[in-house]
Automatic annotation (TrEMBL):
An example molecular function term from Gene Ontology annotations: DNA binding
UniProt DNA-binding residue ranges: 27-46
Keyword Translocase in annotation: no
Organism: Shewanella pneumatophori
Protein name: TetR/AcrR family transcriptional regulator
One Pfam family this sequence matches: TetR_N
Length: 190
């Protein structure tokens, strides 16, 4: 197994164990053992379990951002773009239930330092802030503080994905799909 393969195996194993057992109940030794590497190898890649958690969080956020960033149409119709991105984001969550479950458990957790959450929001997901500012500039979105709007969007996404993960058949229902977007949009519109 190459060095990069070992690091990825550790991240994948940590994801599974953090979701199934919780962060505090998961030991570094159990992560290493289940990943098939020595505990020293884990510490070669990550200085601590907290560092492993941070890198896992940021790598999944980056994967999520990459999946939806390429879907921005740039047509200038903020509402249509927002609806399309909302659906793409929820599709990603449904297609990646373990990663979304990780977000459900850790996005607002004190296990993820506020600075790391801010890095994810302001750097990795910066295009979302740009869309909000564009919508505020055109008068389509309310002029609330950007950071508050981003957190509100994030909270609504977590709530909607929790619902759709618990009731996957409803995501195929156009009424539920439209209602989820309408609630999201109505919370932000001017």
């Amino acid at each position: 197994m190459s060095r990069l393969d070992k690091k990825q195996a550790l991240l994948d194993t940590a994801l599974t164990l953090f979701v199934s057992q919780g962060f505090h109940a998961t030991s570094t030794a159990s992560i290493a053992k289940q990943a098939g590497v020595a505990t020293g190898t884990l510490f070669h890649h990550f200085s601590s379990k907290d560092e492993l958690m941070k890198q896992l969080f940021l790598s999944i956020k980056q994967e999520f951002a990459n999946a939806i960033k390429g879907q921005i149409s740039q047509k200038g119709d903020i509402k249509a773009d927002a609806q399309h991105l909302w659906q793409v984001a929820i599709n990603w969550a449904i297609e990646n239930p373990l990663k979304q479950e990780f977000f459900q458990q850790y996005s607002m957790s004190p296990s993820i330092p506020a600075a790391i959450r801010q890095q994810a929001m302001n750097d990795i997901l910066s295009f979302m802030g740009e869309l909000i500012l564009q919508g505020q500039k055109t008068g389509e979105l309310a002029h609330y503080p950007l950071s508050l709007m981003q957190e509100s969007c994030h909270g609504q996404f977590l709530a909607a994905t929790r619902y759709f993960l618990d009731h996957p058949e409803t995501w195929e229902n156009d009424e539920h799909k439209q209602a989820s977007f309408s609630m999201f949009w109505n919370a932000m519109k001017a």
